[in-house]
Amino acid sequence: MKIIYALFLSLILSSCASYSVTEREIQDYLDDRSGFERTVGIKGLAHANIKFENVKVGIGRVSSDRVNLDADSKAQISIQGQSTQDLQIKVSFSAIPYYDKEEGAIFLNDLSVEEIDIQPNELNLPSKQLLSPIIEMVGQYLLTRPVYRLSDEDFKQSMLKTARPELLIKNHELVIQI
Q: What is the DSSP secondary-structure string of the chain?
């Protein structure tokens, strides 16, 4: 009888289980894992070295169903016959979060560029041709990596990993619930 009671109680608890992921938790997760450096273009002709350093996260702040990400990048752009230019690029993205059961992680989808700020404002080079790949590279990085992964060490999170949870945005948190 005790086994049946325990199974029944576990079934009830698992059917209404949820876990909230805060902006701070996602921020900490990304701070530990974000950042890369890449070079695009053809060296000696035209190329850019991009260093992507940090991301600031907001949940449901721009739109009730989206996560917003403010990404900072530095680029050093070289074009044959011109002096090298250093740029600070701040890009604001928004995306729809989704839960991937196989990965046990939250990813982003439907990434949109909301705002771009480039310093210095005046460039002496064909900026659109070089800046598009930089922004696309940062966006691709954000789409292919989880923004949060559930932990196997936390009982509640590990329980949710094995279920088919739903992902919602409530009160500036991502809520994973069954």
A: -HHHHHHHHHHHHHHT-EEEEEHHHHHHHHHHH--EEEEEEETTTEEEEEEEEEEEEEESSSSTT-EEEEEEEEEEEEETTS--EEEEEEEEEEEEEEEETTTTEEEEEEEEEEEEEEESS--SS-HHHHHHHHHHHHHHHHHHS-SEE--SSSHHHHHHHHS--EEEEETTEEEEE-
